[in-house]
Design goal:
Blueprint lengths: L4 E9 L3 E10 L5 H19 L6 E9 L2 E8 L2 H10 L1 H13 L6 E10 L8 E4 L10 E5 L7 H4 L4
Antiparallel strand pairs: 1-6, 1-7, 2-4, 2-5, 3-4
Helix pairs in contact: 1-3
Length: about 160
């Protein structure tokens, strides 16, 4: 994570984009042979995505919890996300491995959510934070949150 930027900022991005949330939950702590390979599969896929900026992937943040991990990803479009999911050998291999080792055991759970965000239909604010989240996306601008950008309603163009 980068240097803390003092002050109040927001992110602005032109065009539509997609937010993809993917995570895993350890349901049976003692079944490490079931959930550890699932946990280890995400790192190489994120590395692969950062090495392929033409893929439409823009940024990711990783969040740990007591029993799992969640990754929030920003994509230029749903089509780019879907193309990666269907055509990446790393993803395909990880998915087949999960199904072979873990499906039906209940030892580890996985989930994902996809949100399609039309241009201008989002808002964000960062107070004394490094560049993170949408602000870290390759296509986003990190700008001071002043004037009409001072409030959530203003950032959404509602006032």
């Amino acid at each position: 994570m980068g240097e803390v930027i003092t002050g109040r900022y927001t992110a602005q991005i032109k065009g539509d984009f997609a937010v993809f949330i993917i995570g895993m939950r350890v349901n049976k702590l003692w079944a490490i042979h079931k959930w550890l390979p699932v946990a280890q599969a995400m790192g190489p896929m994120i590395k692969e995505l950062y090495e392929q900026p033409e893929s439409g992937f823009m940024h990711a943040t990783v969040h740990l919890s007591w029993r799992g991990v969640t990754v929030v990803q920003y994509w230029r479009s749903f089509e780019a996300l879907e193309h990666y999911a269907r055509n990446s050998m790393l993803h395909t291999s990880a998915w087949h491995s999960f199904n072979k080792r873990s499906r039906g055991s209940g030892a580890v759970g996985i989930y994902h959510e996809t949100y399609l965000v039309p241009e201008g239909q989002y808002e964000c604010v960062y107070n004394n934070m490094p560049v993170i989240g949408l602000a870290g996306a390759t296509d986003a601008e990190h700008v001071p949150a002043g004037g009409r950008l001072r409030t959530a309603a203003g950032r959404l163009g509602r006032r």
